Amino acid sequence: MTSTDPQRPAVRPTRQRRAVASALAGFDDFRSAQEIHDLISQQGESVGLATVYRTLAALAEAGEVDMLRNEDGEAIWRSCSDTHHHHLVCRSCGATIEVEGPAVERWTNAIAAEHGYADISHTLEIFGTCPECR
Amino acid sequence: MTSTDPQRPAVRPTRQRRAVASALAGFDDFRSAQEIHDLISQQGESVGLATVYRTLAALAEAGEVDMLRNEDGEAIWRSCSDTHHHHLVCRSCGATIEVEGPAVERWTNAIAAEHGYADISHTLEIFGTCPECR
DNA sequence: ACTGTGGTGAGAATCGTTCTCATGTTGCCC
DNA sequence: GGGCAACATGAGAACGATTCTCACCACAGT
C-alpha cells in the first residue's frame, strides 16, 4: 500500500499558494487570472503569473474555486461554497449571487438519460442587470 | 427614413459566404472555425481563415448559428433552429442534440426576478457520453 | 462599362495560457 | 541538524486562437 496509494497529497502549502488564496478571499465576483495576479502584487507579494495559473487550476480541480468563461472565452475565477451551484451574474458590475436549483439538476439528468447519455455534467449561468445598475 | 433606416442589409451573398453556409450544412455537431475552414478546403473551395471567422461571427449575430465555448475556451459553431434551445453534447464524439426546457427558462427568470435582476439571459449546456461512445 | 461601398486574404499583431528548464523549497528519514 | 528526492517556482519562450491591417477585388446600381 505504498506504491499504489492514490492519496498522495502532492499539494504543498507554499507562500505563493497562500498569496493566491488570500487574494481570492478579497473579492466575491469573478476575476481573470491576470487581475488576480495584479491583486497579489498590490498586496505586496510577488508571485509569478504561471504559478497563479497553476494554483487556480489546482484549486478549481479541487472544487475550491469556480472557473467559468466570459464572452471572450477568457477564464475567470472566484472562490465558492463546496456544494454544487450556479451563478446569477450582473452583466454590468459583476456582482455575483450563488443559486441552487435542484429542479434544474433533475431536469438535466432526466434529459440526458432520455437520450442515453451517461456521465452527465452541465454548465448554467444566468446574466442580468442587478438592482444597483438598473 | 433613409439615413436612419436600420434595415440596411450590409451582407452580400458572396462565394465565400456560400461556401461557409455549405460547410455548415455538412455536419450537425459543433466544430471549431479551423475545422470548418478545413472542411471548406476539402470541398475544393478556397476561403481565408479570417473570412471564415467574420462570416461565422455574422451568422451567430444573426442567430443562424449557435456558438459556444468548449472546455478550452475555444469557440465552436453549428447551424441551429431559430427557436431558443440548449444542447446536449457528447464529450467524446461531439454528437449534439438540441433540447428545450420551458421549465428552466421559467426558473431562471424567477430566480433573477427574486434578486431584482433585469434583462435576463442565460447559458446552459449539458455534457455527457453518448450511447455510441459508452 | 463606371464607381463606390463592402468584402476578402495574407500575414502581422494580440493576448490569454501553457511549457521549458534551471533553480529554490518542502517534507521527511536518519 | 543535515541531506536528499520530489515537488514548486519564475522568467521568458512558445503556442494557438482570434483579430487587425491594408492593399486589392467584386458586387450593385447607375
Q: Could you walk me through the main structural features you see in this protein, from its secondary elements to its overall organization?
A:
- The structure is a homodimer of 134-residue chains.
- Chain A has helices at 15-25, 33-42, 49-61, 102-114; strands spanning 31-32, 65-69, 75-79, 86-90, 96-99, 118-129.
- The first copy, chain A, is α+β, with helices and mostly antiparallel strands.
- Chain A has 2 domains: 1-81, Winged helix-like DNA-binding domain superfamily/Winged helix DNA-binding domain (Arc Repressor Mutant, subunit A); 83-134, Ferric-uptake regulator, C-terminal dimerisarion domain (Dna Ligase, domain 1), CATH 3.30.1490.
- Chain A has a 3-stranded antiparallel β-sheet. Chain A has a 3-stranded mixed β-sheet with strand order 5-4-6, covered by helices on one side.
- In chain A, strand 4 (86-90) and strand 5 form a beta hairpin.
- In chain A, helix 1 packs across helix 2.
- The longest helix of chain A has 13 residues, at 49-61.
- Chain A starts with 14 loop residues before the first helix and ends in a 5-residue tail after the last strand.
- The relative contact order of chain A is 0.13.
- Mean pLDDT of chain A is 88; it is low at 1-9.
- Chains A and B meet through helix 4 and strand 6 of A and helix 4 and strand 6 of B.
- Strand 6 of chain A pairs antiparallel with strand 6 of chain B.
